[in-house]
Amino acid sequence: MGWEASYDGWVIAIGALAAFACALPGTFLLLRGMSMMGDAISHAVLPGIALGFLVSGTRDSIWMFLGALVAGLLAAVLSQALHRMGRLEHGAAMGVVFTSLFALGLILIVQAAGRVELDPHCVLEGAIEWAPLDMVDVFWGWLTVPRAVPVLVIMLLVNLTVVIACYKEMKIAAFDPDMARASGIDARIMNQVLMIITAATCVACFEVVGSILVVALLVVPPATARLLSDRLPVVLVLACLIGIVMAFLGHFASGSVPGWFLADIEDVSTSGMMAVMAGFLFVLAWVLSPRHGLVMRAVHRLRLRVRIAAEDVLGLLYRCEERQEQLTAAQVRQALMKAASIGGVTARLAMARIRRQGWAELGTTSCHLSDEGRVLATEVVRSHRLWEAWLWRNIKLPADHVHGSAMRLEHVTDAGMRDQLAAETEATEVDPHGKPIPDSGGEADPSPDSTVE
Question: pTM higher than 0.85, yes or no?
Answer without folding.
Answer: no
